[in-house]
Specification:
The complex is a heterodimer of chains A (115) and B (113). Chain A is mainly beta and 115 residues long. Chain A contains no helices and 11 strands. By secondary structure, chain B is mainly β. In chain B, the strands form 2 sheets. In chain B, strands 2, 4, 5, 6, 9, 10 and 11 form a 7-stranded mixed beta sheet that branches. The chains are: A mainly beta (115), B mainly beta (113).
């Protein structure tokens, strides 16, 4: 049972344009969401996160939007740069346990930013 | 400031053997989690340690076990290796407070033949 889904395995975007990566989740207990970026031969690097009490969080070129009713979140990268080419993972967690919860990851979207 | 350090970086083992992977958390971090990433998949949570005890466990068999030492470093042990255990094993650390500051290591690539 895949509780976090990234239905687009890959995405190609021209440099300077907007990249939109999507993520859906099924578990209503998830209340914290994160995006990680992964380059080959490296571990995932934290990018941006959002709590379920918000619907938007922005950090420089990166913005994450959360639609709780649709159980959907998206990551917007504007403008896209060639160095953004990587695999992007959406991850979700539940803070209800009272301790730092495990992260449940999607299968990733490979973003390629072309010149 | 060194981040999360994992060793070895690559490993080849034979079916039925046992393996130990090691992780040193980022300075200031006392909680360590292990994840398995199979090819084409996202990381899957194995277990989490803090205060030298396993605190949370994912859906992995008992062949997977771990340990955390007083200096917060950790080991992941896998017994009776199967071909399906071939994967990238990632260690992540964070401080107990500041709940979501997970930092990942570069992983250990395990190949079982």
């Amino acid at each position: 049972d895949q509780q976090v889904k990234q239905n687009s395995p890959s995405l190609s975007v021209q440099e300077g344009r907007i990249s939109i990566l999507n993520c859906d989740y099924t578990n209503s207990m998830f209340d914290y969401f994160l995006w990680y970026k992964k380059y080959p031969a490296e571990g995932p690097t934290f990018l941006i996160s959002i709590s379920s009490i918000k619907d938007k969080n922005e950090d420089g070129r990166f913005t994450v939007f959360l639609n709780k009713s649709a159980k959907h979140l998206s990551l917007h990268i504007v403008p896209s740069q060639p160095g953004d080419s990587a695999v992007y993972f959406c991850a979700a967690a539940s803070t209800y346990t009272g301790t730092a919860s495990k992260l449940t990851f999607g299968t990733g979207t490979r973003l390629q930013v072309t010149l | 400031d060194a981040g999360v350090t994992q060793s070895p970086t690559h490993l080849i083992k034979t079916r039925g053997q046992q393996v130990t992977l090691r992780c040193s958390p980022k300075s200031g971090h006392d909680t360590v989690s292990w994840y398995q990433q199979a090819l084409g998949q996202g990381p899957q949570f194995i277990f989490q340690y803090y205060e030298e005890e396993e605190r949370q466990r994912g859906n992995f068999p008992d062949r997977f076990s771990g340990h955390q030492f007083p200096n917060y470093s950790s080991e992941l042990n896998v017994n009776a290796l199967l071909l399906g255990d071939s994967a990238l094993y990632l260690c992540a650390s964070r401080p107990r407070t500041g709940v979501w500051g997970y930092t990942f290591g570069s992983g250990t690539r395990l190949t079982v033949v």
